[in-house]
Amino acid sequence: MLSLYFEPAESPLGWEVPTVVDATGLTGPLLEYVVALGSTAHDRRSHALTVLWDLLLPVPVAAIPSILPDDAQTRAVALAIRANPADGRSLARWGRDVGSSARTLSRRFRSETGVSFESWRTFERLNAALPLLADGLPVSRVAREVGYLTSSAFIAAFRRELGTTPAAYFNGTSATSTD
């Protein structure tokens, strides 16, 4: 991944918010070239940017909510899951570990994040899975690394939250297979 920031006024594209783009083909090397030029070679940079603006294509990005709770005990659980999404402790076990009841943690997760504990954990697991999948790791390995016992359970959660399978998401298709 390469991140570049342009002043909105510098770009003729009219994008005023950060935008993820497809960096395949010529776009990736051209972005690296622009970075290497820096601000010293004004004419060459200007020419490269003219070509770059023609090549940039935004890509859809899944937004998976990931709000951290404010309550100290609930936040401790959330941070521990974020650090290790494969941790499968139940809410009752988490409660014992942080000195709270499962019911209190459940209520706080819902009130402070807007979703249940299980939904929040699913979001965290999917957030952890996306970079692994983008790196080309097999779905079965990613599923295990983020806490799913089977690939099919992971694919089902992925499809439920993102509307497609992992393979289709990264291939830009709407396939319904379960790799």
Automatic annotation (TrEMBL):
Superkingdom to which the source organism belongs: Bacteria
PROSITE patterns: HTH_ARAC_FAMILY_1 (PS00041), HTH_ARAC_FAMILY_2 (PS01124)
Domain HTH araC/xylS-type: from-to ranges: 75-172
Keyword hit for Transcription: yes
Keywords associated with the record: DNA-binding, Transcription, Transcription regulation
PANTHER family referenced in this protein's UniProt entry, alphabetically: HTH-TYPE TRANSCRIPTIONAL REGULATOR NIMR (PTHR11019)
Name this polypeptide is given: HTH araC/xylS-type domain-containing protein
Organism lineage: Bacteria, Bacillati, Actinomycetota, Actinomycetes, Micrococcales
